[in-house]
Q: What sequence folds into this?
């Protein structure tokens, strides 16, 4: 992508709606007390014809694009840890389920909401490279040498604050640390 | 919500004080470890935290044993009430049993089915590990201010039809994202005639429609349930009537006057359901909204039947199942697993002769646990196997890679166990 000192981000497309957190990280991997190492099992059991979790394109990607209602089901934050551990820095979709959305921002993972029409276009063209511009709220996609398409995205304002601050813990303690017990 | 509002960090977000934080062994340990390493091992208020081991209990290997160990050691050193093996239960069944949830409280747990406690008119919100960590340290939870969805329930349940069928119907109608960022208020005559256990079943699955929580209006039913505290400490924590039995009774009796919907409330959405038109449900697909009449799937063979979970593992659920199974023998090609959701339910089931009914019929009757529900503990399905289940999720592979789950009510599951094929409970229930 033009711009940068930064190498372009590879984009991977999951053309399905309502991908749930059981698919993102199956329960059998929830027996951990550490947040590390879950990336190896990301989307291992995803029900999507043609998807192969060992696909080198998937393994090399930084940005995930998916259909609406992404992250439905279980509150397991392990889903976010798996996504981040696998090297993804952002997920782009028309909508996200609440707990997944809150977990993502709490961990500093960027979620970008785009229109269904934009997603339909993206799933059709499957541009291999992309870039998220948080300041201007634009998702630019294209080839390695050019932007071919620019899409506006929305991000929850509080979520944006958390992403910029790197997650919830620093924010929470700065503003609400050492709360006196309620009586 | 206004009573708990600490702040509105941005437009549309609220920071709420947490009255009660519940912790189980799957989602809490990473938070405990980080708090110990980085935040001086503190908690905001140990008396407002309740810990329980439920998902994989007893531990099945070193890793799950370590999860329990982290939780157990933390509870011990911080003086947090902890329900361990022999005194435990599925978290969303044991918390109400201990009468720790009261109307108007905020309840947070690192588990999506925390919405169950909305049955008590509490704002009960499921969160992830980091939000739980922040809540444990600061006593504050952040969430997008929910809109309110009113679901009016009219009519009367017909024989053979249950609260589980009602909530499956609702999810089928509004979809898995139908109530995202909404709190559902279940109102109407069919809601107020539900017992607390029925309300918990309905509230439990409100998250499957994306809801932040699912609330019932507190009333005499709620007050009756909440009248039996385990200890004065519990009564104080729940701030119930100032700690004295007399004040408590007065407080309970005031429910009718104190709790009512705001006549000027702005609803994000409104729906209406006549429960007399609801028929026994069975899910056919890979999400809870893929539901329909049992008649569409009658005759489908199953390998396993699971009766239990935070959705339908309470004593009333086991009674319904036992009534159907009584005197029969389960076919030898069917594994029927019955799991009481708490030790109290287990004890009652034994005392009432239900355990004997299940065991005599050839079911396995076990100790409390989440069990087969999430394919992490026991009762895992082999590829190609099918389970008729009273749980809340039928995602592909949830109970075991390559396995299929059909969600249904305890009555439908029990009827199915009799034949090994999905069966309409109305065929086996007298009076249906």
A:
């Amino acid at each position: 992508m033009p711009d940068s000192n930064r190498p372009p981000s590879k984009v991977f497309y999951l053309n399905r709606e309502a991908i749930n957190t059981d698919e993102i990280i199956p329960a059998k991997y929830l027996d951990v007390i550490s947040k590390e190492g879950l990336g190896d099992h990301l989307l291992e059991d995803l029900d999507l014809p043609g998807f192969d979790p060992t696909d080198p394109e998937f393994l090399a990607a930084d940005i995930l694009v998916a259909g609406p209602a992404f992250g439905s089901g279980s509150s397991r934050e392990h889903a976010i840890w798996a996504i981040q551990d696998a090297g993804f820095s952002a997920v782009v979709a028309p909508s996200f389920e609440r707990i997944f959305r809150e977990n993502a921002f709490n961990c500093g993972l960027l979620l970008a909401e785009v229109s269904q029409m934009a997603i339909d276009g993206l799933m059709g063209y499957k541009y291999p490279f992309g870039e998220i511009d948080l300041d201007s709220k634009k998702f630019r996609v294209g080839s390695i040498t050019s932007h071919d398409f620019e899409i506006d995205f929305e991000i929850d304002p509080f979520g944006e604050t958390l992403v910029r601050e790197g997650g919830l813990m620093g924010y929470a303690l700065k503003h609400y640390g050492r709360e006196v017990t309620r009586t | 919500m206004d009573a708990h509002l600490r702040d509105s960090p941005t437009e549309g977000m609220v920071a709420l004080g947490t009255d009660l934080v519940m912790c189980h062994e799957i989602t809490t340990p990473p938070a405990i470890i980080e708090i110990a390493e980085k935040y001086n091992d503190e908690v905001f208020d140990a008396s407002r935290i309740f810990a329980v081991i439920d998902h994989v209990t007893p531990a099945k290997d070193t890793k799950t044993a370590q999860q329990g160990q982290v939780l157990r050691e933390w509870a011990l050193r911080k003086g947090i009430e902890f329900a361990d093996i022999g005194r435990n239960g599925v978290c969303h069944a044991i918390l109400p049993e201990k009468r720790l949830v009261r109307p108007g409280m905020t309840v947070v747990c690192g588990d999506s089915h925390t919405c169950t406690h909305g049955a008590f008119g509490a704002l009960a919100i499921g969160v992830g590990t980091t939000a739980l960590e922040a809540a444990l340290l600061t006593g504050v939870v952040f969430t997008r201010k929910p809109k309110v969805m009113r679901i009016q329930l009219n009519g009367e349940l017909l024989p053979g039809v249950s609260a589980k069928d009602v909530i499956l119907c609702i999810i089928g109608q509004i979809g898995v994202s139908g109530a995202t960022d909404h709190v559902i208020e279940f109102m109407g005559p069919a809601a107020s005639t539900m017992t607390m256990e029925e309300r918990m079943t309905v509230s439990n699955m409100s998250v499957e429609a994306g809801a932040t929580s699912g609330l019932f209006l507190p009333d005499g039913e709620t007050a009756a349930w909440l009248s039996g505290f385990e200890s004065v400490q519990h009564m104080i924590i729940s701030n119930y009537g100032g700690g004295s039995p007399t004040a408590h009774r007065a407080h309970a009796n005031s429910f009718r006057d104190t709790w009512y919907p705001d006549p000027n409330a702005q609803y994000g959405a409104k729906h209406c359901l006549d429960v007399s038109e609801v028929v026994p449900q069975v899910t056919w697909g890979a999400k809870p909204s893929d539901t329909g009449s049992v008649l569409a799937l009658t005759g489908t063979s199953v390998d396993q039947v699971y009766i239990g979970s935070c959705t339908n593992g309470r004593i009333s659920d086991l009674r319904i199942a036992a009534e159907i199974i009584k005197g029969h023998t389960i076919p030898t090609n069917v594994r029927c697993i019955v799991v009481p959701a708490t030790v109290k339910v287990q004890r009652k089931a034994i005392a009432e002769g239900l355990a004997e009914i299940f065991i005599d019929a050839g079911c396995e009757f076990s100790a409390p646990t989440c069990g087969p529900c999430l394919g992490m503990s026991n009762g895992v399905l082999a590829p190609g196997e099918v389970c008729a289940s009273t749980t809340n999720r039928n995602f592909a592979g949830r109970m075991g890679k390559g396995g299929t789950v059909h969600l249904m009510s305890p009555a439908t599951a029990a009827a199915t166990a009799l034949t090994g094929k999905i069966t309409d409970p109305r065929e086996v229930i007298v009076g249906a």
The mean pLDDT of chain B is 91. Chain B touches chain A through 65 residues (CB under 8 Å).
